From TrEMBL:
Taxonomic source organism: Streptomyces telluris
Domain (N-acetyltransferase) ranges: 41-178
InterPro entries with a match to the protein in the record: Acyl_CoA_acyltransferase (IPR016181), GNAT_dom (IPR000182)
Coiled coil region boundaries: none
Pfam families the UniProt entry points to: Acetyltransf_1
TM spans (from-to): none
Record's protein name: GNAT family N-acetyltransferase
GO MF annotation list: acyltransferase activity, transferring groups other than amino-acyl groups
């Protein structure tokens, strides 16, 4: 995951007790996350010792039918696209070269999984989040994807809904902290 507090992440497409228990039992590395489409209170009893539900990270499973829009960076910003190990990264920079907003996407057949979309606080409310999302969508469509999927925070959900994404379920976030 590239973050000290997120060694790895398991994402379950369905929140069945046996699947949650099996995924959690397979983990031995601290700070490994498990996300599943479920209410946090429903998944909590299925977690073995050492696992906790992180209410702050619990969010929403969202999806959209993708379409290309050929986005242009907001005035004063530039963007780059880079692919490494099957993940494509969008990075936007301000006129001084400082990082302003980022996001990434991985293609899994006809699905595109969008992750880690962040706009630095001093650059918010300038259209960068929408630009990053549209750039990721364009890349995914060019790669053959037709459906986008992501896990959103409450704050992110508001942006994604303005771009046509729909919330389909709560997304419980659990972390292994032995």
């Amino acid at each position: 995951m590239g973050q000290a507090e997120q060694a790895a992440r398991h994402v379950l497409f369905e929140a069945h007790e046996s699947a949650v228990r099996a995924a959690a039992a397979s983990v031995v590395v601290p700070h490994t996350w498990l996300k599943a489409p479920a209410e946090p209170e429903d998944i909590r009893p299925w977690l073995p010792r050492g696992w906790v539900v992180d209410e702050e990270e619990t969010g929403h499973l969202m999806a959209v039918d993708l379409s290309a829009t050929e986005p242009v960076p907001p005035e004063g910003y530039t963007a780059s696209l880079e692919t490494s190990d099957g993940v494509t990264y969008v990075r936007t920079h301000d006129a001084a070269g400082g990082l302003a907003a980022t996001g990434q996407v991985a293609l899994l057949g006809h699905e595109a999984v969008v992750d880690r979309v962040v706009t630095e606080e001093i650059h918010r409310r300038r259209g960068l989040g929408a630009f990053v999302m549209r750039t990721l969508a364009d890349h995914a469509v060019a790669g053959g994807a037709s459906v986008g999927v992501l896990g959103a925070t409450d704050e992110g959900r508001a942006l994604y809904e303005t771009l046509g994404w729909k919330a389909h379920a709560r997304l419980a976030a659990c972390v292994y902290r032995p």
